[in-house]
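hey
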């Protein structure tokens, strides 16, 4: 990993507790060497798989998404091309390199995909991603640039596409896209490989209404292309691909709902349910394309026959439906069929689906059983099992404080002070520990005499919170205007505490919120002198405060928000603090007076937040303020804000001076900012997990 030209080496101290990994989607690479699991917290775990035994160990955790992972797909047909594409609930899409775990491309779209199918179209060098989701089109995307190549639109009753399948008919060079809308309309597009992002939309060639609402998956039989399996939560059905008439239908076992399914052969299917079980069915004669009775009227004595159950012995109920996927892979000239499951406990299970001959099926049919024969998974593993198997166990940053007879107190917040080389860690019991960072790292990672010392390195203990410490802030690290000795902490006890870092004393306890503190921030440097001495705190009761560290009192209490606060922006020259809530509402507060200036909704709310981002970008390009001073001057006139008018005038003069100064300088005195040899960053994959820590060593700075 390199930042700029510097060589940076990251090391993770995971701690003794495995991270929570509630699996939302799962994928196995074609070479069967990498299993990929996406989770509801937005992380992706890469597991190293032994193709012969299917034994696996977690290798890499990919962090980048901010919402649950909904889709995982391959990015290429080439076996050597180790890339996957992931998509999240917030519209983010990433292309990842499975070898080193790097994110090669990222994009945020206004579309949320619920399924991505990688398909090699005729006339294309590599696969295209066929995406469907919470929108009325089928998007066809490039997996490496993540650009939309073209869009398939609907002319007849456009609606969200709930299931999709792409196939190439035998002895033809075109591709057929089958899609099923949430309202049960089957749509067919024919692609010839010359499609591109043209102005004209590609409309469906034909569409037909069938009795099938909210389908979860649709698969055309790869063995004959004459039957289609459609799975809904309350039934799965086999359709004739020619006229889309129903051939057979099966409801789920009591208390279960179907999730999806696939063809094992022309006459067999595997269907899985939300309880994490797989059901293997033999199809009746009227649903098998090669049978003489195909498409005939169904006979009572010939129904789909359940001949095997893929289940976990004594499986406990799952807190949410598992992610399951069917994979067919070839190894050493032999075909293997796997059903893979990832569940809410972070467990990964693989069933190697057995090949059952027709004679064995007849034998099973003759043995009249109440329950079909059950088959346990071939492999079961989880992050918890992987952690337990490690000897010695993974180390945490404060393991020296743990006693052997009882588990350590959970670490809940941390902040690294690079100037003092100290690490401040907040814990579940309300205590705050301060340790010398380099000595602590040395104790965990390096062998030597120091490991025999009893109380080394020495630590400082701050006691003041009556419960979990949620967040920590060292204001001086963000701006020099704050006292070097001040440390601020926020806890579950509704309190914000101001500490003297050197003496370890509690200077003041702010009790102005009616909910636990979730965030601590620093206002920008261009605010008024009074606000510059404040810090901003956000709480779970949807309130925001500006707390004066010098005055030791609450300067502004903004507490009329009806929904949780998700973002805070600043317009210092207008004296505005802008609070964005989870329902999209924006509240504009005056900082000096504490008055609520206005409440904005919809597009005007978005525009105000966007304008704040624009201003930050403008200020980062060289000027200390925000946008054009003239704009702020007229805005100040409009709002009758004398402070803003005065400030804008001063900034206009300052900009002219800066411009004159810049033209008379050759710019040769710019110095490269010095990098820090060590940085420590807290990492938490789930709010309930204890913090792990990433140590980032800058090799050049160390030398």
């Amino acid at each position: 990993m390199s930042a700029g030209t510097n060589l940076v080496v990251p090391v993770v101290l995971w701690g003794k507790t495995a991270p929570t990994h509630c699996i939302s989607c799962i994928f196995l690479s074609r070479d069967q060497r990498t299993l990929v699991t996406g989770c509801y917290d937005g992380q992706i775990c890469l597991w190293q798989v032994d193709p012969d035994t299917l034994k696996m160990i977690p290798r890499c955790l990919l962090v980048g998404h901010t919402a649950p992972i909904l889709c995982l797909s391959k990015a290429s047909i080439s076996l050597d091309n180790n890339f996957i594409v992931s998509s999240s609930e917030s519209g983010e899409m990433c292309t990842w390199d499975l070898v080193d775990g790097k994110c090669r491309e990222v994009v945020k779209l206004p579309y949320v995909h619920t399924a991505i199918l990688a398909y090699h179209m005729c006339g294309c060098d590599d696969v295209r991603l066929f995406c469907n989701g919470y929108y009325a089109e089928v998007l066809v995307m490039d997996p490496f640039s993540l650009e939309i190549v073209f869009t398939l639109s609907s002319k007849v009753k456009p609606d969200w596409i709930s299931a999709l399948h792409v196939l190439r008919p035998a002895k033809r060079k075109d591709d057929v896209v089958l899609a099923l809308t949430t309202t049960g309309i089957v749509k067919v597009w024919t692609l010839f490989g010359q499609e591109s992002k043209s102005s004209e939309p590609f409309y469906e060639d034909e569409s037909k209404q069938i009795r099938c609402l909210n389908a979860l998956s649709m698969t055309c039989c790869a063995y004959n292309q004459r039957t289609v399996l459609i799975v809904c939560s309350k039934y799965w059905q086999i359709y004739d691909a020619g006229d889309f008439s129903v051939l057979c239908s099966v409801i789920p076992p009591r208390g279960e709902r179907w999730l999806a399914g696939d063809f094992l052969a022309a006459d067999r299917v595997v269907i899985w349910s939300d309880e994490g079980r797989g059901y293997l069915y033999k199809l009746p004669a009227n649903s098998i394309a090669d049978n003489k009775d195909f498409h005939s009227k169904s006979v009572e004595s010939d129904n789909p026959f359940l001949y095997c159950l893929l289940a976990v012995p004594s499986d406990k109920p799952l807190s949410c439906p598992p992610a399951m996927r069917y994979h067919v892979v070839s190894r050493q000239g032999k075909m293997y069929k796997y059903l893979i499951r990832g569940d809410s406990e972070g467990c990964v299970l693989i069933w190697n689906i057995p090949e059952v001959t027709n004679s064995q099926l007849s034998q099973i049919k003759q043995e009249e059983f109440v329950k079909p024969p059950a088959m346990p998974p071939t492999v079961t593993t989880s992050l918890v099992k992987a952690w337990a198997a490690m000897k010695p166990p993974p180390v945490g940053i404060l393991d020296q404080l743990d006693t052997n007879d009882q588990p350590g107190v959970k670490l809940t917040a941390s902040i690294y002070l690079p100037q003092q080389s100290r690490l401040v860690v907040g814990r579940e019991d309300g205590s705050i520990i301060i340790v010398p960072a380099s000595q602590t790292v040395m104790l965990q990672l390096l062998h030597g005499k120091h490991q025999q010392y009893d109380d080394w390195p020495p630590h400082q203990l701050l006691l003041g919170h009556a419960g979990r410490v949620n967040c920590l802030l060292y204001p001086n690290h963000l701006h020099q205007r704050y006292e070097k000795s001040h440390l601020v902490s926020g806890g579950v006890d509704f309190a914000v505490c101001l500490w003297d870092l050197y003496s370890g004393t509690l200077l003041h306890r702010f009790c102005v919120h009616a909910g636990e503190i979730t965030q601590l921030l620093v206002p920008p440097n261009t605010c008024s002198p009074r606000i510059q001495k404040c810090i901003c705190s956000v709480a779970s009761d949807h309130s925001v405060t500006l707390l004066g560290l010098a005055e030791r009192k609450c300067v502004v209490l903004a507490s009329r928000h009806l929904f949780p606060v998700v973002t805070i922006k600043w317009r210092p020259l207008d004296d505005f603090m802008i609070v964005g809530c989870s329902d999209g509402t924006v509240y504009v507060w005056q900082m000096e007076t504490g008055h609520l200036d206005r409440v904005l909704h919809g597009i005007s709310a978005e525009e105000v937040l966007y304008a704040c981002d624009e201003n930050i970008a403008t200020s980062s390009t060289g000027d200390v303020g925000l946008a054009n001073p003239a704009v702020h001057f007229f805005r100040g006139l409009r709002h009758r804000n004398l402070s803003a008018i005065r400030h804008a005038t001063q900034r206009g003069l300052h900009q002219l001076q800066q411009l004159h100064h810049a033209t008379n300088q050759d710019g040769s005195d710019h110095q490269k900012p010095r990098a820090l040899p060590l940085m420590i960053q807290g990492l938490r994959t789930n709010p309930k997990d204890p913090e792990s820590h990433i140590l980032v060593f800058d090799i050049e700075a160390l030398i």
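The longest strand covers residues 323-331. The two ends are 17 Å apart (CA to CA).
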